[in-house]
Amino acid sequence: MRKFEQKCNEWIAEQVRQEMNPRRRELLEKGLGHGTVEFVRTIWFPVVGNFDRLYPEWEVRDANNGYRYIDLAFIPSHSVKGGIEIQGYGSHARDLDVRRFKDLCWRHSMLALDNWLFLPVAYPSIIEEPKRCQQLILSFIGKLIAADVPKGLNWLEAETIRFARRRFRPFDPADLAEHLRVTIPHARRILHSLVESELMGVASGKSRYRTYVLRTE
Predict the structure, then answer these.
(1) Which residues, at least 6 apart from 30, have a Cβ–Cβ distance to it below 8 Å?
(2) Is residue 163 very low, low, confident or very high in pLDDT (cuts 50, 70, 90)?
(3) When you count CB atoms within 10 A of the terminal residue's CB, does the N or C end of the chain come out lower?
(4) SS (H, E, C) the chain
(5) Which fold has domain 155-214?
(6) Where along the chain do the CATH 1.10.10.10 domains lie?
(7) Mean pLDDT, rounded, for 103-129
């Protein structure tokens, strides 16, 4: 718990320090909402272990040229972006009138048209179904980071990188061969090429590589 508090405080402080937009800086200085804090404490941090490329209170423009704020934006590259919003039961269900319901639908529609992968998370699910939410977030991250691969790769190499990003654990050539529908020797050659390109790393094996993992450095 103490590690989370330290990392979370450092994360917010760094966001405030780097932010040049006075509107967003003011929101950050006020502190995150209870639902957002509970989400990063219970769901995000336990499975991800860091706050890299995660931005709270991310500002977007709406259809009327005004400003809206996404609870959490995960932006792994300039071309890929995902938004997470914590939906409190009281404000988004019991007390949702027609006007606010329409506004919520417009908001989600505009984000989708602006190429956001949008993920609403119910606050009760964070409390009651944390493991299920954690799996949802891993899939969410995997989908986003799998969309962006280095240039210059053939389609089998690119799909291998996407496969590795979705796995979140080491895999062997047989796993990749089954996914790509190629022979195991062919899968092994693809992996060796990506290791030489420093896009993949060896998780186990020295004289003969056994399992592989995506390089993170």
Answers:
(1) none
(2) confident
(3) C
(4) CHHHHHHHHHHHHHHHHHCCCHHHHHHHHHCCCHHHHHHHHHHHHHHHCCCCCEEEEEEEECCCCCEEEEEEEEEEECCEEEEEEEECHHHHHHCCCHHHHHHHHHHHHHHHHCCEEEEEEEHHHHHHCHHHHHHHHHHHHHHHHHCCCCCCCCHHHHHHHHHHHHHCCCECHHHHHHHHCCCHHHHHHHHHHHHHCCCEEEEECCCCCCEEEECCC
(5) Arc Repressor Mutant, subunit A (1.10.10)
(6) 155-214
(7) 87
